[in-house]
Amino acid sequence: MKTINIPTMGSNDTDFTNFFNIANDVMQDPINYYCFNFSNCLNLSHLGMLLIGGLARYIGEMKVTPIQLAAKNIKNIGVTFDTNSMSPSLMNSLIKNNFLKHFKETTINRFQKSPVTNYLKDKNTLNESILIEYIKKTLPSKIPKYVINNIIKKIINNLSNEIDNSYPYEQGDYIGYLEHKNTLDETTLTEYLESGWLSKNRLKLSPQLKSEIISRIVEIFMNSYGHGVSNQVHHNLGVYSCGEYDSKLKQLHLSVLDFGIGIAKNVMTTHLDITDQVDALNWALQQGNSTNTDSINTDIPRGLGFELLRKFVMANEGKLRIYSNSVQACTTSNGVFETQESKFSFPGTLVSITINCDDKYYILTNETTHTAYF
Asked: Quick check: helix, strand or coil at residue 121?
């Protein structure tokens, strides 16, 4: 077992560096069993939740052979969250933001492991036939059949109850961490963005501008399926996101993560004349450019949808960050993208937006009812 110490994480540049440092450590050694320890973690922002949740799913989808396990002297691979090392405030935050409810208790706490996972067809189904055969082999042959059957019934009932309780944390009051699997529910996502993340009491937007922003964010999710999920090696991995409202700084954050081929490599695959990742990401950020694989439906040309978001964060003095492969693009104080090689090589894409919740009323420039801040 390898222990990873999770630090306190916010949403600034240093925290993004910590994100990729930890991600690289784990993803460069995926055939291992990790324990995430939170003794030094006072708080986890949306970025931290996205990190540990995404890595847990990434390691969980690794294909491993007995020879590989033997070479590492481990019985299986995976990630556990050591809740015993969490402070009460951190635990409450992970519950409130709907993070822990996505993970089974056996995944969450290494001190509360259960044998139930050996007899599961999937996360909610007991494989009774395998369990019955196992019990019969382990019990003495001289025991009467009716006694064996009673024992089997009791064990199955106990394990069934354990399955019901294997997701021990109730739903929180704020939808922060989300896992989007094989398909994207655009309706549910739009409702979450409209009534939850971009609620009226946090940010003042005209209905038209709000609709445009939500549309562009939904496009980011769709792009993650197009250049991400559809092309990734581990097909069961989905798209992961986490939103957050920082009441102290009065900022909204939203980050979207996938483990696919990445934007830069996707562009270079479809445009052979582009051989540099910085050039590839710059090409993708230009309004109207599309590889025709940036959406779930590959026959629909769709750009990355960043231009309107870039203009909005410029007016709002927010931040838009894109990390993919070995490059990154972040908006400057002037609102333009600064694209450069990254210190990290990330097999996927992370998009993050930060919006300041000020007292201004934001509208599109073609709206004339109010003074336009955008």
From this structure: strand
Sign, CA dihedral 295-298-300-303, equals positive
Place of tokens 């784990």: 26
Which whole-number Å values give the CA distances from 128 to 167, 239, 292, in the listed order? 20, 32, 46
Max avg pLDDT among 163-172, 173-182, 298-307, 325-334? 325-334
**Helix pair 46-60, 13-27: axis angle to 10 deg:** 10
DSSP per residue, 143-204? S-HHHHHHHHHHHHHHHHHHHHTSS-S---SS--EEEE-SS--HHHHHHIIIIIIT-TTT-E
Length of the chain: 374
Q: Tell me which residue of 47, 43, 123, 35 sits closest to 83, measured CA to CA.
A: 35
Question: Is residue 195 very low, low, confident or very high in pLDDT (cuts 50, 70, 90)?
Answer: confident
Q: Strand 251-258 vs strand 337-356: parallel, antiparallel, or unpaired?
A: antiparallel
Spatial separation of the C-alpha atoms in residues 160 and 166, rounded to whole Å: 10
Strand 120-122 with 125-126, pairing: antiparallel
pLDDT tens-digit map of 127-137: 566 666 666 66
- pLDDT tens readout for residues 212-222: 999 999 888 88
With beta carbons less than 8 A apart as the criterion, state whether 319 and 313 touch. Answer: yes
Helix (H/G/I), strand (E/B), else coil: 270? helix
Residue 194 pairs in a beta bridge with none
What SS3 state is found at 104?
A: coil
Please check whether residue 9 is in contact with residue 19, taking contact to mean a CB–CB distance below 8 angstroms.
yes
What digits encode the pLDDT tens for the residues 35-72?
999 999 999 999 999 999 999 999 988 888 888 888 88
Kindly tell me the burial class for residue 330, based on how many C-beta atoms sit within 10 Å of its own C-beta (0-12, 13-18, 19 or more). middle
Confidence of residue 110 (pLDDT cuts 50, 70, 90): very low
> Which of 351, 247, 265, 281 minimizes the C-alpha distance to 309?
351
Non-local (6+) Cβ contacts of 146 within 8 A are none
Asked whether residue 185 carries a pLDDT value surpassing 70, the answer given is yes
pTM, entire model: 0.79
